[in-house]
Design brief:
The protein is α/β, with parallel strands linked by helices. The protein has 5 helices and 5 strands; from the N terminus they run αβαβαβαββα. α3 links the parallel β2 and β3. α3 crosses α5. It starts with a helix and ends with a helix.
Length: 131
């Protein structure tokens, strides 16, 4: 029951986020390995956000990420959301140990990674490393 509630909360939160972003914002997508591999192969700027609906640090990171990715310089950024609780295989494949993990890529290259960071300046630096 707790997992179902967490999944529903994540879906609602993601849907609200997707609807609220302006056209010049980064593209937000639920994570799937095939789309992630394709974006890397195409050389895209990528941010992977590994979150859990119950995580207070993740909830603190989210408005920072939303605000940052609304900036025009991030219009070509692709943000993949990974649910820590329901996508365990993907979390392992990304070599993440915890929720609230942010990973930046430029194409195939990982450019930066953080865990538990809620500082807007350092999160901005991480996201900018993908450009």
């Amino acid at each position: 029951m707790v997992r179902l509630r967490s999944l529903l909360l994540a879906i609602v939160t993601s849907a609200e986020l997707l609807v609220s972003l302006p056209a010049s914002a980064a593209e937000w997508k639920p994570f799937d390995a095939a789309s992630f591999a394709a974006a890397k192969k195409e050389g895209k700027s990528i941010l992977v956000d590994i979150f859990a609906a119950w995580c207070p640090t993740c909830r603190a990171q989210n408005p920072i990420l939303v605000q940052l990715t609304r900036e025009p310089k991030f219009k070509d950024l692709v943000v993949f959301k990974v649910d820590f609780d329901t996508q365990k295989d993907d979390v392992r494949a990304l070599k993440a140990q915890s929720q609230s993990t942010l990973i930046a890529y430029k194409g195939e290259t990982e450019t930066d990674r953080s865990v538990g960071d809620t500082n807007p300046a350092s999160i901005a630096a991480l996201v900018e490393s993908a450009l």
